[in-house]
Amino acid sequence: MRTWQVERRKRTRHLIELGGLVVKAGIVDLTNDDRAIIYGALLWIAAKLHSHQGEHARDLWAAKGKQAFAQNGMMSKRASEPSGD
Predict the structure, then answer these.
(1) Which is deepest, 28, 46, 52, 70, by most CB within 10 Å?
(2) From the centroid of its chain, how far is CA 45?
(3) What pLDDT, on the 0 to 100 scale, is given for residue 1?
(4) 28 within 8 A of 22, measured Cβ to Cβ
């Protein structure tokens, strides 16, 4: 398999995993799968992370996510590592 194919598959898997988190958090059901609401919420999160409250928000959200992963038995090495993106 060519290098670009391997990279494309890795990217596809990563995107699928991120989409799974949106579903797991209940966002799809809570918004009736309204893409504008979901995108708007993600933009709000990005703005919050860029603000002077970004570090605090990041710490709070990371703790909440790790707690949820642990409660669901989903905590993995990957979930606890910072993103390299």
Answers:
(1) 28
(2) 11
(3) 83
(4) yes
